[in-house]
Amino acid sequence: MAFVVGVLFFNVCEYYIHKSFGHRKNPVALLFYKRHTGDHHSFFSDDEMYFDQAQDWRVILFPPWLVVVISVLLLGIWSAASILNQNMASLFSIAVMGSFLCYEIFHVCAHVPSGYWFTELPWIRMVRRLHTIHHRRHLMADRNFNILFPMMDKILKTIVEK
Fold first, then answer.
1. Is residue 60 within 8 Å of residue 111, measured between CB atoms?
2. Which of 39, 60, 102, 162 is 20 to 30 Å apart from 45, CA to CA?
């Protein structure tokens, strides 16, 4: 159960962080906004989604400092939760970090040029389609915030599928 809660927790956080900090100027996360909307959405549009060279990866993957911030926050959550049950805290933490890793992998898949064998897998095709829609200039600030699994987009009716 702790693992499932961790995956769901990540999904909710992914949605709200992406929407609230990635697409809206907020003094708490201005650097994240500039990197996401300023760099990522300026570099990739719905008609130009794929990277050309290795240097393009800098606008696809999260920067290392953000991985450290997430790890420190998760360590704090783990420390607090381990007071109740260390196994539960570990499973929750593994689920959150695993979801983050999957997010990064699937986000890369959304920006890989077509023609690779994995781009035709059903789940990857869905991710690529929804993420391309998210990169439409008139939709990016309001639609398709989940990458890994569009649960919150479906619940909050912010999903656009075509």
1. yes
2. 102
For residue 141, what are its two tokens?
């600030």
Residues 6+ apart with CB under 8 A from 151: 8, 11, 15
Q: How far is CA 131 from the centre of its chain?
A: 10
Quick check: 156 and 143 in contact, CB under 8 A?
no
Alpha carbon separation from 125 to 46, 110, 120, 147 (Å, rounded): 15, 8, 6, 12
How far is Cα 113 from Cα 48, in angstroms, rounded to an integer?
10
Burial grade of 88 (CB within 10 A; 0-12, 13-18, 19 or more): middle
Q: Splitting the chain (162 residues) into consecutive groups of 10 residues, what average pLDDT does each group show?
A: 97 97 93 92 94 88 87 94 95 95 96 95 97 96 95 98 93
Tokens of 143: 């639609």
Q: Give 94's contacts (C-beta < 8 A, 6+ positions apart).
A: 3, 6
